[in-house]
Design brief:
Chain lengths: 345, 641
């Protein structure tokens, strides 16, 4: 799909049409290697990876706010690397936050039962670690990643046995935090407008509702069988903005139709449900790791799919495994490696 | 690798955690199914709705403008053609940052760009700068950009700013002809020939159905080709036009050197047999290219400024003035009709006294007993005053019931006082009022004049003129209900209330020259394109004069250049080969310097061309306008001066 959504534009600009697709394949290979490495790690190594990964993510999130960071589409979220590559620390931060949370909420030996209540200081630690990351994400500002991270950690806390009242309190606190962020000017008005545009995309078809409206048109014209790969008029005409990243599912919907779209959703559901059943069979640590990964992928994936079909607000998170982007692809594959690591036992 | 935990302890039981995980499963399944259901709904039930929307978004029917036809002279030399120019168009409204950047890149003040983006009629839109094209289309704001600037603007990729090639009007000939050709605004002819023949010149725009692409690219699908505008072949002759313009300009300069204000002037050159116009010059004029570059407020103001002579006014068809002595040939025709013999003898004293009022000859010269021909040649006013007086008396003097009105009828019969029907927009009609009209006008204006007779003209800055106007008002208030002898006498010498355009005089003189046919002056000859159509001027019938009288007048006028008032201007001209018939005129308008007239045709024995020249406040007809006519004849007949 990355090829389908980018080749016309590339060729028109005089570049090789397969540029993005080739890079995406490279990212998938890198991701698979990373997944294999994670799969092979033992528990101390995972512990070290979680701590190191989290620290590196926070460092990265801080670095993007310095002159080292690059702003794309209004979000200061990228670090430039040699060789024309960029790194998006937010994508890795999501993995390491849930990994760290799972580690802290199980005991040091991993021997505690899944039904045992979590240690209060561990919960506080997890909330602090999440708060730091979410705060830095809001500064970029990357509302979507902040929400996804929060949702994933909430899932972990829920399964770890944190009481319902606390979770509700956290949700309320998160909402208040978002309102506060808007009030002090961290979030721009356009982000709020974009966030609420899904409620009525036709109200302002040339403005904030444009992306949603165009994505809906692309999906709507796909029909049951789709218009065929590379043959979607709306996709090939580049009517949908950010189609190879955030709105790639609209290209799936137009060119591969309902069958292709349902295949993607089904595949996603199978992965998530298998993840949960792996959690059910794992020890406390394994169960929490799997839960965190599943909640992260679910939150991000459903948010992306939901915004493509006009059910959820537009927040600019990529569709895991499908959207173009090295950081996103590699992070998602690390998640897969962790799930395999859990299900091995 | 160490064991994570012992199977017995780690296996999750049916405890709360397991229930929570099962809840998570249910939530995931529910959300997944919801999204799936939404997808199915979008792609089945809603598919036709979105297909229709897609069609609308992806395709756009755009108008492909047709290349505007050229305007050429009778030999095909281009007077107004097209050249391509780099143009910047914008899709308003522009945001501040974009406007600022565009202004920097183009080197044009923001205000000027902004003014151009306003659609005429919108609040704040200024005539001359506002956009008069189709609303919704990109508005051209900058034309004739230098290539480096255009490239810089294109590379800046500003939102809503398009750099494109556009055809703009080009004037490659040496002739100015600004008001004659007219101008375009946003692709439409707004005056002159551009407006008159707009439909033909514009062609038929084509239609292209474009499959659009959000990033600005597009693939054009089906094209209904634009039908290029037709070429307008005119009757004009570029060489004659150039000479007429130059001679007029020089005459104005000369008159000014001699102390006259010489505020404006015109030249008409026309074929006496067909009415085909060879040249039409108007002074003052302006550079026709200013329209293509976009007018500034100051430029627009100068085009309509009274003090600058209002260059937008096309004097040959729009300036109205008394014809002065150039009217005398028509009085001659009228007198013959009224029974005054052509072979009679008429006294030319230095003045005549009627009703206690003295009517003087020019410079009070007396020629004694003369023929009508001589009276025309030397322009003896007293002969024509007397003829006017006698005709007035025959018409019943002050009473005037059932008046014959020979002079007025003849003048109207020769086309004065009504539009000639020339193929140019905005032609003035003028007027040759008869008794009934004069008296009707008096009824209408009496109160105003009587009020003025008491209050005077305090708003008039020129004290002398104000006194003069007040005296007129007093006189008019007292006895305006009578059509007095003086009215008729003034009419007979082309003064008074008669107002004509230079083109009307050209048509009247053409009728004298061609034996009485009233031609329709015209500029359009043919329209060339996929097919060719001749433009037929309408017919206007015949002037009320018999052939013998006209021949007599022609012979009389031919002597003007030999030993009459125009002999000085034609000194050294080969009159033996090309006899020129002429009548000079010096019109008096209260409070202004005299207007110089020169009406002529040549060759006098077999007339081909009529040449009419006039210069407002330019002094004597012979001295100021004569040389212009001479220069034109030298060009027309290939005489090297």
């Amino acid at each position: 799909m990355v090829y389908s959504t980018t080749w016309v534009r590339l060729i028109r600009d005089g570049d090789p049409g397969g540029y993005f697709a080739f890079r995406q394949i490279l990212f998938v290979i890198l991701g698979a290697v990373a997944a294999w490495v994670v799969y092979r790690l033992d528990r101390p190594a995972l512990m070290a990876l979680a701590v190191f990964g989290y620290a590196a993510s926070v460092a990265g999130l801080l670095a993007v706010l310095t002159p080292l960071g690059t702003t794309i589409n209004g979000t200061r979220a990228w670090l430039t690397l040699p060789g024309g590559f960029t790194l998006q620390p937010a994508e890795f931060a999501k993995v390491f936050v849930v990994l760290l949370a799972a580690l802290w909420l199980s005991d040091r030996r991993g021997m505690r039962g899944l039904d045992d209540p979590p240690e209060p200081q561990a919960v506080v630690g997890v909330l602090a670690a999440t708060g730091v990351v979410a705060g830095l994400l809001l500064l970029q500002p990357d509302l979507g990643s902040a929400l996804v991270t929060g949702a994933a950690v909430l899932g972990v806390l829920f399964v770890a046995g944190v009481r319902g009242r606390l979770l509700v309190a956290l949700l309320v606190a998160g909402a208040l935090g978002a309102i506060g962020a808007y009030a002090v000017g961290v979030l721009d008005a356009y982000q709020v407008a974009r966030f609420t545009a899904f409620l009525d995309p036709a109200a302002d078809p040339q403005g904030v509702g444009y992306n949603v409206q165009q994505a809906l048109i692309a999906i709507g014209t796909g029909g049951v069988q789709g218009q065929g790969l590379l043959a979607g008029a709306h996709t090939q005409g580049a009517f949908v903005p950010y189609q190879y990243t955030d709105f790639i599912f609209s290209a799936v919907g137009e060119e591969l139709g309902m069958l292709g779209g349902l295949l993607v959703i089904t595949g996603f559901l199978v992965l998530l449900l298998r993840g949960v059943s792996a959690a059910q069979r794992a020890d406390r640590f394994g169960a929490l790791v799997a839960t965190g990964i599943v909640c992260w992928l679910a939150a991000q994936g459903f948010e992306n799919l939901g915004m493509n079909v006009g059910l959820l607000p537009v927040t600019g998170v990529p569709l895991p495994f499908v959207s173009y982007g090295g950081s996103s692809v590699i992070a998602a594959w690390i998640g897969v490696g962790l799930l395999l690591r859990v299900s091995r036992h | 690798m160490t064991q994570l935990a012992t199977p017995a302890r780690t296996r999750a039981t049916d405890g709360p955690a397991r229930r929570r995980l099962r809840m998570l499963q249910v939530v995931i399944l529910a959300v997944g199914l919801t999204i799936g259901a939404r997808l199915i709904w979008l792609q089945t039930a809603q598919a036709p709705v979105y297909a229709a929307k897609a069609q609308r978004v992806q395709t756009d029917v755009v108008t492909v403008p047709a290349a505007r036809g050229s305007i050429v002279d009778r030999d095909g030399r281009i007077l107004a053609g097209n050249r391509t120019s780099l143009q910047v168009a914008v899709q308003p409204p522009l945001d501040d940052a974009t406007l600022q950047r565009l202004s920097e890149l183009a080197g044009t003040p923001r205000g000027r760009i902004l003014a151009r983006t306003l659609v005429c009629g919108q609040q704040g839109a200024e005539p001359g700068t506002c956009y008069r094209g189709e609303p919704g289309e990109p508005v051209p704001v900058l034309t004739d950009l230098a290539i480096p600037r255009a490239l810089a603007i294109r590379d800046a990729d500003l939102p809503g700013v398009i750099v494109q090639q556009a055809a703009v009007r080009d004037y490659p000939s040496q002739a100015n002809a600004a008001q004659l050709l007219g101008y375009l605004s946003d692709g439409q002819g707004r005056s002159g020939l551009e407006a008159q023949y707009d439909q033909a010149l514009r062609g038929t725009p084509g239609q292209a159905r474009r499959t659009l692409n959000r990033e600005g690219g597009s693939a054009t699908d089906e094209v209904e080709p634009a039908l290029e505008g037709q070429t307008l072949v005119t009757t004009l002759d570029v060489d004659t036009q150039v000479v007429a313009e130059r001679a007029l300009r020089e005459a104005v300069a000369t008159a000014r050197d001699a102390g006259y204000r010489a505020t404006g002037g015109s030249v008409v050159v026309m074929d006496v047999r067909t009415g085909a116009i060879r040249a039409l010059a108007s002074y003052p004029t302006y550079d026709p290219n200013i329209w293509t570059r976009g007018l500034t407020d100051a430029q627009f103001a100068s085009l309509t400024d009274e003090k600058g002579g209002r260059p937008l006014v096309f004097r040959p068809t729009q300036a109205l003035m008394p014809p002065a002595s150039t009217f005398k040939p028509l009085t001659t025709v009228a007198a013959e009709e009224a029974g005054f013999p052509l072979d009679g003898t008429y006294d030319c004293p230095s003045s005549v006294v009627v009703g206690g009022q003295v009517f003087r000859n020019y410079e009070s010269r007396a020629y004694g007993p003369v023929s009508l021909a001589r009276a025309l040649s030397v322009s003896c006013d007293t002969v024509f005053y007397r003829l006017g007086y006698k005709m007035w008396k025959r018409d019943g003097a002050l009473v005037g019931e059932g008046a014959q009105e020979h002079v007025v009828r003849t003048a109207r019969g020769f086309g004065l006082g009504s539009a000639t029907g020339v193929d140019l927009p905005g032609e003035a009609a003028g007027s040759v009022p008869d008794r009934a009209q004069v008296l009707a006008e008096y009824d209408q204006r009496r109160d105003d004049f009587c009020q003025r007779a008491e209050q005077g003209y305090p708003e008039e800055p020129d004290r002398g003129r104000a006194r003069l106007l007040k005296a007129y008002a007093r006189d008019y208030c007292r006895s305006g209900y009578e059509y007095k002898a003086g009215d008729a006498m003034n009419t007979a010498i082309g003064q008074g209330r008669t107002l004509v355009t230079p083109l009307q005089m050209a048509a009247a003189y053409a009728a004298i020259a061609n034996g009485g046919t009233l031609v329709t002056p015209h500029l359009g000859a043919r329209l060339q394109g996929t097919d060719e159509t001749d433009i037929e001027p309408g017919s206007r019938g015949v002037a009320p004069a018999d052939l013998k009288t006209l021949a007599y007048v022609r012979r009389a006028l031919a002597t003007t250049t030999v030993d009459g008032t125009a002999s000085g201007a034609f000194l050294g001209f080969p009159l033996a080969e090309i006899p020129v018939a002429a009548k000079t005129g010096t019109a008096e308008v209260a409070g202004k310097q005299s207007t110089s007239w020169f009406a002529s045709f040549a060759p006098a024995d077999n007339p081909q061309y009529v040449v009419i020249v006039n210069v407002d406040q330019g002094g004597l007809g012979a001295a100021t306008s004569g040389p212009v006519a001479r220069a034109v004849y030298e060009e027309l007949f290939g005489i090297s001066p």
